[in-house]
Amino acid sequence: MAYYIVKVAISALLIVAIAEISKRSSFIAAVLASVPLVSVLAMIWLYVDTRDADKVAALASGIFWLVLPSLALFIALPLMLKQGFNFYLSMASSILITIACYWLMVTILDRVGIEL
Question: What's the rounded mean pLDDT across residues 15-42?
């Protein structure tokens, strides 16, 4: 149980730290957020829990393919906000666009024989 509390605490602290840093410097926060900390932590936790390098490799491969559609959020959100759209509408729309891009990517990968 203590192990799970440590995992949650470290993960949450990173998110809160990035949010707090962004109040002072959006650049530094963006650099920290752009580093795949969550992915690295997930791979570490997976390996520590299972000692299975194949599972870590499969996770890393899946992350690689799914990073591309996730970029849609970071394109759509600032464009909508700069056009004067409400923040919550922009965020919701950007998330829906991203979901559509995920669906498209998974469909394409399935058709070309890449299994996630």
Answer: 88
